[in-house]
Amino acid sequence: MSKKEREILNGNSDSDFERFLESTSKLKVPSSNLGKEAVWDKLMQSIEQESTKKTKVASISPLIVRLSVAATLTAIFTIATLSYKYSTLEFVSQKGSTANIVLPDSSAIILNADSRIEYRRFGWLSDREIKLNGEAYFSVKHGNRFSVLTEFNRNIIVTGTKFNVFARGAQFEVKCFEGSVRVETPKTKSITLSKGKGINLSVKCESPQPIEVDSTSTTPKWIAGDYYFNNSPLSEVLDELSRQFNVSINFQGFKPEARNYTGFFKRKNLTQALDLVCIPMGLTYQISSDSTSIKIKK
C-alpha cells in the first residue's frame, strides 16, 4: 500500500475518513482480472481525478476584465448622452378641449384643440426650442433665443414676446401681440413682425400675405372661444368647427374648398355654431342622435 493510501486509512480525523467514503461511493469499479494492488492503484487514481475536477478554477485574464469594464462604462455613457440629448416631453390637447402648459423657464403656452407640442426634457434653459403641430399661443419670458419649429421648416424666433402660431399642414399663420417675432421660411427671407402685425401662408400662395391683428388685445380671440374668418375657404371653417366640438362632418352636393366664408362662430353651443356657418352659406345640416357627427347639404 502506498503512502497516500495509508494517510487516507490511518488519518486521525473521522471527517477525513468520511470524505474518503463519500468519494469512493461515487466510483464504479468494473470487473477485472488485475491483482488487488493494481485494482487499488486504479481506485486511488480515480479518487485523485475526481478531486481535481471539483477543485479546478477557471482563471480570467486581467485584460479581459479591463475591457469588459471599459465597454460597460462606454455603454452607460452613450445611453446617458442620448437620453440627455433626445429625451423629450410631449403635450397634446384633444379635439374639443384646450390645454395650458407652463415651461421650465415660466413661459406659458395655451394649446388649441387637436394640437401638440414637443420639447427637450433636459437642457431647456440653454436651448429653448419647441416643435408645434396645430395652433398655440405663446407668452415667452425674456432670456435666450426661443424657437418654435413647424412643418416645412417654417420657424419663429423670439427672445421675449407674445404671439400666436397656426401650423396645420401647409396652412401657416403667425400673429404678434407683444414685442416682435422673426419668421423664417425656406422660400422667403426672414420677416420681422411687430405688435399688431401678422403673416399668412397657404396652399394656394407661398408668398407671405400680411394680416392685421387687433393691437388692443394681447391674446387671440380663440382663447375666449370665438373663431373669426375673413374670406376663408369653407373647408377650413368646417375643419375648425370639427376640432372645437369633436364631431365628424360629412357634406353633400357642394365642395367646401370651392366656397369662401366670412363670419364667426362660438365654441359654446354646437347648434348655434352651425347656424352661424350654414345659414349664410345657404346650407342645411343634420346632427346625429349622439351628437358625434353632422351631415351638411346644399
Instruction: Tell me the CATH architecture of the largest domain.
Output: Sandwich
**pLDDT < 50 runs, ≥5 residues:** none
Question: How many structural domains in the coordinates?
Answer: 3
Give helix and strand order, one letter per element, not per position: HHHHEEEEEEEEEEEEEEHEEHEE
What shape does the CA trace take? elongated
Strand residues, percent: 35-45%
Number of strands: 18
Rg from alpha-carbon coordinates: 40 Å
What is the share of helical residues?
Answer: 25-40%
Structural class: alpha+beta
Q: If helices are DSSP runs of H or I spanning 4 or more residues, what is the number of helices?
A: 6
Q: Provide the CATH top-level class of the largest domain.
A: Mainly Beta
The largest β sheet comes out as: 13 strands, mixed
Would you tell me the overall average pLDDT? 83
First and last CA, distance: 117 Å
In the CATH scheme, what's the topology name of the largest domain?
Jelly Rolls
Task: Give the arrangement of secondary structure elements.
Blueprint: H1 3-9, H2 14-25, H3 36-55, H4 62-86, E1 88-93, E2 99-102, E3 108-111, E4 115-120, E5 128-139, E6 146-149, E7 155-158, E8 162-168, E9 171-178, E10 180-185, E11 188-194, E12 197-201, E13 209-212, E14 226-233, H5 234-245, E15 248-252, E16 260-266, H6 270-278, E17 284-287, E18 293-297
Parallel strand pairs: 5-6, 15-18
Antiparallel strand pairs: 1-4, 2-3, 3-5, 4-5, 5-8, 6-7, 7-10, 8-9, 9-12, 10-11, 12-13, 14-16, 17-18
Helix pairs in contact: 5-6
